[in-house]
Amino acid sequence: QVQLVESGGNLVQAGGSLRLSCAASGSIASINVMGWYRQGPGKQREWVATITSGGSTNYADSVKGRFTISRDNAKNTVYLQMNSLKPEDTAVYSCKAVALGWPYWGQGTQVTVSS
User: Fold this and answer.
1) Rounded to an integer, what distance in angstroms lies between the CA atom of residue 48 and that of residue 60?
2) How high is the pLDDT of residue 28?
3) What own/partner pairs with CB < 8 Å and gap ≥ 24 does 61-64 have?
4) Are 81 and 12 in contact (CB under 8 A)?
5) Which residues, other chains included, contact 52 with Cβ-Cβ below 8 Å and sequence gap of 6+?
6) Contact status, residue 25 vs residue 2, Cβ threshold 8 Å
């Protein structure tokens, strides 16, 4: 079992920055990949970024160059640094971990970008 707790969501003006955190606990040694997803109002959930246990990263085209995913293994935490935020980035951001083939989700954190 893996437990995930996100934090860092907030209201921010367009052009601003936020850093989201996802703290993992439980069977963290079995985690292969962690990622961020988001669901905007009236939209389906979409993938944002992932980072593997080896540190490889991938990003959705919509956030490439603006968002950075990273991890602090000592703190069992994955971060999403979001810069140059746009109103269309408004969404509930959720953290996902895949451990031994099983997906685990956090509860989500709200990010609202005002124009």
Assistant:
1) 5
2) 86
3) 62/88, 63/89
4) no
5) 32, 33
6) yes
Per the prediction, the chain carries an average pLDDT of 96
Above 90 in pLDDT, residue 61? yes
Token duo for residue 82: 């979001």
- Where does 8-54 show beta strands of DSSP type E? 11-13, 18-26, 31-39, 46-52
For residue 18, give both structure tokens: 């936020």
Q: Which amino acid is at 65?
A: G
70, exposed or middle or buried, with CB in 10 Å at 0-12, 13-18, 19+? Answer: middle
Note the pLDDT tens digit of each residue in 13-38.
Answer: 999 999 999 999 998 888 999 999 99
